[in-house]
Design brief:
The protein has 8 helices and 13 strands. It is an alpha+beta fold and 331 residues long.
């Protein structure tokens, strides 16, 4: 058939983009890996869910012979959480597809995935900042032990300490030979990002934290209650919108999620005394400006071009055309 034209919307498959993005939503970032993914609301009506928890009926009591045993009724509490929608959009023109460098659709899917994943990661961090248990300690092994004592528990659940890069380096120096490198932990490492281990606590570095800020988080507790839950109502949904007037295609990626503090007893928010340093970042990469003027070689050493800067001796010897001819009336 004649006069057929392949346009950008013909080569875009939203489902392919949707399949490429979800893996980035809950993987690869420091805080998200500490949350337990909860899909209770997935595919069900409603935006809020309650999680009931049975209360303890109390210890057994001494009973005298031939006396009745008192009964206790079961009671429960509940924790409610509600979801929200997050989203990000991008736009690609037909010209960008035809003349641009690289794979525009592939780059856009990667960027959308990173944008949503970083948003989720930051949401988990903000949830940790809601911790009700706090400790102000010295930057030392004794200080870390003081923070661990806040738990006042006997379980051996794996515990991680998320700190700024500055504090992580100081702790490694303080630990000396007692420092266990992250690569030595093997299968026991909670996250691929584990930097080391001291006092049985795995250290994770994050530039998102202020220099004097840290969090102790218990993971893998035997009671099955995670410190933080990440509730997913709906996975990534990708929707294209063709804009013929401008010969472009806009892409929108959305998800429905919410992070919440499920068990506050498993998180301790730490402030290090006397530690100063850079404030935390939001995790987004810095923008790079367009600068196509090479500066890696001095001007006089460039190949194929004449130096813009002439030496004073050369400037003295070189005259402009006609500069040596006197004008009428000149002496």
């Amino acid at each position: 058939m004649a006069d057929q034209v392949t346009q950008s919307d013909n080569v875009l498959d939203p489902q392919v983009l949707a399949d490429m993005i979800p893996a980035k939503l809950t993987a690869g970032l420091k805080f998200t890996s500490l949350a337990q993914v909860d899909r209770t609301l997935e595919g069900k009506p409603g935006s809020t869910v309650e999680f009931p928890t049975w209360n303890y009926i109390g210890d057994a009591e001494d009973i005298k012979e031939n006396e009745p045993i008192d009964t206790s009724k079961l009671t429960y509490g509940s924790k409610a959480a509600t979801i929200k929608k997050i989203g990000k959009g991008g736009s690609v023109t037909d010209e960008a597809l035809e003349t641009g460098y690289g794979d525009a659709w592939g780059e856009l899917s990667n960027q959308l995935g990173l944008a949503l994943a970083n948003k989720v990661d930051n949401d988990v961090l903000e949830t940790l900042r809601q911790a009700v248990q706090n400790a102000s300690i010295d930057l030392s092994l004794d200080g870390i032990q003081d923070a661990l004592d806040v738990y006042n528990s006997e379980d051996d659940a794996p515990t991680v300490l998320i700190v700024s890069p500055k504090v992580a380096g100081r702790l490694r120096l303080a630990a000396g030979k007692d420092w266990l490198r992250g690569t030595q932990l093997g299968a026991d490492a909670v996250s691929k990002g584990v930097y080391g281990d001291i006092l049985g606590v795995q250290i994770i570095r994050s530039r998102k934290l202020n220099a004097n800020e840290a969090f102790l988080v218990k993971t893998g507790a035997e009671d099955g209650k995670p410190a933080v839950k990440l509730m997913l109502k709906r996975d990534i949904k990708v929707e294209p919108d063709r804009v013929p007037k401008y010969n472009r295609t806009d892409i929108y990626a959305t998800a429905m999620e919410a992070a919440y503090l499920y068990d506050p007893t498993k998180v301790v928010k730490i402030t290090f005394k006397g530690v100063e340093g850079p404030a935390g970042t939001n995790g987004a990469p810095a923008d790079i400006s367009v600068d196509n003027e090479p500066d890696n070689v001095k001007e006089e050493n460039k190949i194929g071009t004449r130096s813009k800067k002439k030496s004073s001796k050369t400037q003295d010897k070189v005259q402009e055309p006609g500069s040596g001819v006197k004008k009428p009336g000149e002496v």
